[in-house]
Amino acid sequence: MAKVEHIDVVPKTREEIVQELVDYSDLKDRLNFLIGEKIVELIDNDNNPATAKGTAAETLKCTKRFVDQLVAVFGTFGWKLFYPDVPWSMYRACLATDRPIYWLERALNAEWSVRDLRREYAEEKGEPLDEEGAAVKYVLKTKGEVNLSPGLITIKSDDVTLDEFEQGKEYSVDIRP
């Protein structure tokens, strides 16, 4: 029978644990790019992009919306503009602009946070800011019918899409005439 030696495990410091969290977060961002690349390959290899995206969502156990984000980020930035120290949220925020690559480069040069990027973009475009100076993420404009009841907003209109709204999230609504 093999002899098992006892190995003393030295407890990690708080700083070591925090650094591991940072490393894992960086790894998650890199994995998002890798997964995006593979989904793009799957789409290129399939005659029906919707089917390929559905297969990816099912395989990854994620939403089709997240698959769309993975594809959009990789398709827009690719490995050429992948920076290990830039969080995934920065790439997603840049996609919400009219010129994603320009705004990514501008944010990196200015060392902006995602919040800074959104604020600067909103200010430049003349878009609304909240009371803290942050860009308002969702603006709903419709000429259709809007019905409000506790916890429910019903919108009947042909000129609005609700793709940006996620079930289970809270949204504040500012109703203006």
Count of distinct strands: 2
Helix coverage percent = 40-55%
Cα radius of gyration in angstroms: 21 Å
**Share of β-strand residues:** 5-15%
Name the shape in a single word: flat
Structural class: mainly alpha
The overall pLDDT average reads: 81
* Count of the domains: 3
The residue ranges in which pLDDT falls below 50 over 5 or more consecutive positions are 159-164
Following the backbone from N to C, one meets helices and strands in this order, namely HHHHHHEE
Strand order of the largest sheet: 1-2
* Cα separation of the termini: 82 Å
The largest sheet is:
2 strands, antiparallel
| Number of helical segments with 4 or more residues | 6
Description:
Helices cover 50% and strands 6% of the residues. By secondary structure, it is mostly helical. It folds into three domains: 14-85; 96-137, no CATH class; 138-177, no CATH class. The chain has a two-stranded antiparallel ribbon. Helix 1 runs antiparallel to helix 2 (49-60), helix 1 (14-45) packs across helix 3 (64-77) and helix 2 (49-60) packs across helix 3. The N and C termini lie far apart (82 Å).
Strands, helices and their partners?
Layout: H1 14-45, H2 49-60, H3 64-77, H4 88-95, H5 100-110, H6 114-125, E1 145-149, E2 152-156
Antiparallel strand pairs: 1-2
Briefly, what is this?
The protein is mostly helical and 177 residues long.
